[in-house]
Every structure is written in structure tokens, then in C-alpha cells.
Amino acid sequence: MSLKNAITATKAIETLENYSISDLIGVEINRFDIENPREIQIYSDEGFWRQILSGEENWECEFLLNNLNLSEHIARVPGLYFHKDSIHFRNIDNSQIEYVSDKWTHYTPQGKSQKVLSGIGTLKLPPNTNGWRIACVSHGSNSSLGIPVLISEEVWRYFKLKEGIRISHMKAKWVQMDINWASRFPSVRGIPKGYLKIDNPNQIKTKDDIFPTIYHPYTIMEYEKSGSLLYDFVYVTVDSSDSNYKNDIRLFLEEYKYLKDRNGKYLIEPFINEPLLNESDVMYSSPEELRQTNSSSVSHLFLLTERIKSESFNYFTIEKIKEFIDNYLELDDLKICSNEIIMSPNLWYQGKKLVDESANFLQECVKKNKVEELVDNLIKYGLNRE
Prior knowledge:
Elements: H1 3-19, E1 39-42, H2 45-52, E2 62-71, E3 73-75, E4 97-100, E5 105-107, H3 109-117, E6 122-124, E7 133-138, E8 147-151, H4 153-159, E9 165-176, H5 186-189, E10 194-198, E11 204-210, E12 214-215, E13 218-225, E14 228-235, E15 238-239, H6 245-256, E16 265-268, E17 282-284, H7 287-291, H8 300-312, H9 315-328, H10 331-340, H11 354-367, H12 371-378
Parallel strand pairs: 1-2, 8-10, 16-17
Antiparallel strand pairs: 2-7, 2-9, 3-6, 4-5, 7-8, 9-10, 9-11, 12-15, 13-14, 13-16
Helix pairs in contact: 1-8, 1-12, 9-11
């Protein structure tokens, strides 16, 4: 089990935690009455995310945007593509290409995962019981890079919104999501969780034009390789102008899980409100299924993540992590890292050399069930380049 496999398994656990609550849309909290909110004009998707990720206080600011395309698909982690930590996953070696067909560039599972970890990958979420929807808008028509928007049922119906509709003007506040995205993971914790809230038809103007959008349905595949059980992301690039996209996606995913004798199976459904995969091809077709409990009153999410951890974070992985820490970190780095995963250094620090303290630290991480959080945090120190 390489460290890259452990990183991907960590991100799979983070993704499953987020997926399990992705259909829970709440709109009643975090309302503030600011008399004269700050207005910010935005000209590109990158410009928006640079503003959000800048560290400035942007909550309740009003953003002004023009010439956007709407998509019903939203990024796995909105803004991730523009986050500094995702840059390390951008460059994919040609060795990760399995073959190129007339429609697809087939990457290996590791190559697919690397693309998803760089910010590619989308979900289609259902409206909540009151009709509120999370969608996205984009200047470049790429949903993986787009800006999340929370739209009321009134606005959705008033404009008859749908995939690819052109929004010529938008004015909306940036408000906090009231769902707890996997905040225990340091890399995700550093990305503000919000959306532009649209609850009045006066906030937007639309045109009759429908433009093609690009989105990337993704899932997680469990498969065998060299006697090991591995977990990697799989995604498909979809052009909304392709009328046969559903059959194309099904065909690709059906073929992909058996290529190279992988004998894979998919864990989650990328189209939550209108399932795309056959029941026999996916373990969980909705977030609700992951939240359900079995006869022992344990959630399916817990059982699934425990299985991933048992396969991915073994003795060899811990030894490789220790080797990385001993070679690339200082004691002060280790203390900072401990704080970042919400574990006091007082639990393990004994005033000894790094090689001894790293052993104490890792022992405490195992005891406190913090290994996956540690792996996630060590990415910024270069763990994924090992």
C-alpha cells in the first residue's frame, strides 16, 4: 500500500462523509441584516474563488456577476480546483493513460483519482422538501470550477431554470452553508462552505439562449489489484448538448470497472435525484442510504469507512508515514500538525528527538482514530509527492 493509495483512501472517506449529508439543504440560519453590504464585482470563476479563498471576510457580501451559464451539477468540493493544495495533483504523467478511444481518454484509476483530487468531479443534488436547490453558475460553463448557488423554488419556477440557461446578470449574497461538511479534515476545513443565495426573481436576469455545459459525474470504485483492495475515484466528462449522455456514461462505467481485470464495484451514485447507475452496479444510490443504520444500530457510512480504513491504514502505511515525517518535518512542524488535526501535543510530546517523538505522535494518532486526518494534513508538507 503506497502513500498515494493512502491519500486517495483518505479523500474517499472525506467524500463519503460529505456525500452522506449532501442532500440536506437548510436555509433558515445564518441570516444577517446588514444595512449596506459590501458589493464585489466578479468577472470570472477564478476571480470569484480567489476572492473567497483570500482569507478576507466575505460572508454577507453582495457579488455582482454577468454572463453566466447555470448547471444543475455542483463540484464535489466547490472551490477546490482553485485552492493552492490542489495544484500538486494537476500534472498527470502519460503513464496514467490506459488508452484513448474515439470518445474517451481512459486514465488508470490512479490517474482518475488524481484528476478528482485536483478539483474535477460533480454531483447532481435533489431539491429539499421546500423546493430549494443547490446548483452552480459558471463563466466558463465548467461545473467543476463553478460557483455554488442556492435557489428558491419560486425563482426556479419563475424563470423555468434548467441546464445551460444563460443568466445575463446576478446579484446575490455569499452566505454560509448550514451543513457540516467533513470539517475534521484540515484540507477541506480551509475552504469556506457557502453559496450565493437567490430567493427573489429581481436578483437575476436570464436570456432565452441555452448553452452547452461541461460537468463530471464521479463515483468511488472499490477494486482488486495485486492482491490488495483499493479505492479510487472514477469520473466521466459530459457535454450537456449530447442527447445520449446517460447511455454513454453507463457504458463507460460498466466497461471501466472490468478493464484490466479490476472486478470493481461503485460505492455511490453521482445522480442523486435521478439515479443513473443500475442497482446492481452501485452499493449506495443516495445519501439517505448511507445514513441508515443496520441491525446493530451502526450507520452504513461508519461500516464503509471502517472497511476502507482497515484496508488502507495498515502497519506498512504507518511506517511510510513515519519515514516521511522523520525525513521532511521538524519537531515544530509536528506540533503544528498535531494542533491542526485537533490533537494536543501534550498527549505525545516527551522532549525527545524527532525520530522518537514521531513514533509517540503516530501511536497517539492511531489510538485517537486520527490517521486519515493526519494523511490529509501532511499533503501540504509534500506527502503526495512521495
